[in-house]
Specification:
About 35% of the residues are buried. The radius of gyration is 21 Å and the shape is globular. By secondary structure, the protein is mostly helical. The chain has a three-stranded mixed β-sheet.
């Protein structure tokens, strides 16, 4: 498809063209990105080195934090660098790679959240069979399937992007290569492409969100038979998971489940779920989880 294009590079509009605001954006997002990497990598290292965090829940949390760090890295560094450069140029190939990586790690996060909800359902609703159902082999297979599903989804996005011919203009009204802004500058009717996008990304976000809500509803209903202490512990764990789900899926559904139209708030919403969510996830899990905090303290003390 690239041979049919007269455009070989794109110019990213960014969040703003105001020089003073760009300086503020540079400082804020540099700090946020570094904190995101620090916190998520800290969770990854803690789970990897701790002998007390060997349960399936922490096995999946390891991959969620890894996906968060990579997901943020697909967009944040580019945004930070572009605030201090005059021309925010990205080549066609770089744009396609960024699009692939963005959907790969974003979809991986969705699938890991689904697996974590299933893990909590088994732990709370079928406690006697938990170790049998959620064996190490099953956990590994679930993660592998999540990676395979994420790759298939990302390849579908690339297939749609490669169908778009570009003959100018080449300015993308966004701070990274997303399919919706690309469709706006494509030299063709993109109605069918947008329909496929909604049926792909939109369906994944919506269906996953509904499944997660149903799973937590079943879990809450089953808690009526537990002791007060058991209910409190289960509610504490599920509340942190539910917060992550709402924070991540709300913006995603807003972006990917509507007709081909854009709003000024779209870029802010994209910032929230592509940079904000990976930053908030480790805070939500560590602040509400005594086991993770204790493991981090032991790791810190051992290093000192």
């Amino acid at each position: 498809m690239m041979m049919n294009n007269t455009v070989t590079e794109f110019i990213l509009f960014g969040l703003t063209q105001d020089g003073e605001k760009q300086k503020v954006i540079f400082g804020i997002f540099l700090i946020l990105y570094l904190l995101t990497l620090l916190w998520n990598l800290l969770i990854v290292v803690t789970i990897k080195t701790s002998v007390t965090l060997g349960s399936p829940m922490y096995f999946f949390l390891f991959y969620l934090s890894f996906a968060d760090a990579c997901f943020s890295t697909t967009t944040a560094p580019r945004l930070i660098v572009d605030t201090v450069t005059q021309k925010k140029i990205i080549s066609y190939n770089e744009c396609i790679i960024q699009l692939f990586a963005f959907h790969l790690f974003g979809c991986m996060e969705i699938f890991v959240l689904l697996i974590m909800a299933f893990d909590r359902y088994v732990a709370i609703c079928k406690p006697l069979r938990y170790t049998t159902i959620m064996s190490r082999r099953v956990c590994v297979v679930l993660v592998i399937l999540a990676w395979i599903g994420s790759c298939i989804h990302s390849l579908a996005q690339i297939f749609l992007a490669l169908k778009l011919p570009f003959c100018g203009p080449n300015v993308i009204d966004h701070y990274f290569c997303a399919l919706q802004p690309l469709m706006k500058i494509a030299c063709m009717d993109t109605y069918m492409i947008n329909l496929l996008l909604v049926s792909n990304s939109g369906a994944i976000c919506t269906v996953s969100f509904i499944i997660l809500l149903m799973s937590y509803a079943v879990i809450l209903y089953s808690l009526r038979n537990h002791s007060a202490e058991g209910r409190l512990k289960a509610l504490s764990t599920c509340t942190s998971h539910f917060l992550v789900v709402v924070i991540f899926f709300g913006p995603c559904i807003f972006i990917y489940t509507r007709p081909q139209t854009t709003f000024p708030v779209d870029k802010i919403v994209a910032v929230f779920y592509s940079i904000g969510t990976p930053l908030l996830n480790p805070l939500i899990y560590t602040l509400r989880n005594a086991e993770v905090k204790n493991a981090m303290k032991k790791l810190w003390c051992s290093k000192l």
